[in-house]
Amino acid sequence: MKVLWIFAHPEAGSLNGSLRDEGVRALREQGHEVRQSDLYAMGWKAVVDRTDVAFDDGDHGRMVVGDAQEAAYRAGTLSPDIRAEQEKLEWADTVVLHFPLWWFGPPAILKGWFDRVLVQGFAQVVTDAEGRTRRYGDGGLAGKRALVVTSVGARESSFGPRGVHGDLNGVLFPVHHGVFWYTGMRALPPFAVYGANRRFTERDFKEYADALRARLEGLESDMPLPFRYEAGGDYDDDLVLRPGVAPGRTGIDAHYEENVPSVPR
To answer: Is the overall model pTM greater than 0.85, yes or no?
Structure first.
């Protein structure tokens, strides 16, 4: 298996940094190939701007971001840092996104990686032979698996189905469904470290490190989250669930083919 581990934490000596090291070591011991993108260590530029593309100002000097990114991708003129990340994605069959959960989402540097790397024509807004847009279960990254490894400061119970912070699968829906599934990657249930703001003992760390190693053993075999395929017949031409599909279920829950499994650890 070829695994791309994308790490977004500013401190290599943090709990997350130590778990990253354990995870990469475990994968290599299992015989997998691993490449890494340590975004803070790389000094990754998090904002989209004109330096990302060989900009053509034929549209009266106005940069239409998606179109400009796609044109540069197809012409091979995206900036070198973006092309390097896309090459890693093309190489990988599995992606691990590892980040602390800040304000109920990834750090800005990782959001900037999404914005700059997952461009039209490469990861999204790709079409099939009949001109239909491939997304939600299909797309430029179809066939790959993806896992979120994250840490939260709160206790585990507060991220449960009735917890004040909301269920973790719901909190991560924008990443699982809006990034992974939209581009065709199959999202695995996340691996979460709870209570990360407290001082971890050596025993605490070993417990989580062992749990992470066990989860990584299932990268190829664990069941992904059961999202509905856009092209699977459940959605109408307006991309709304058809009458009779998921009766009585609304919101995020309706876009799963079955009940969402609880977040394993």
So the answer is: yes
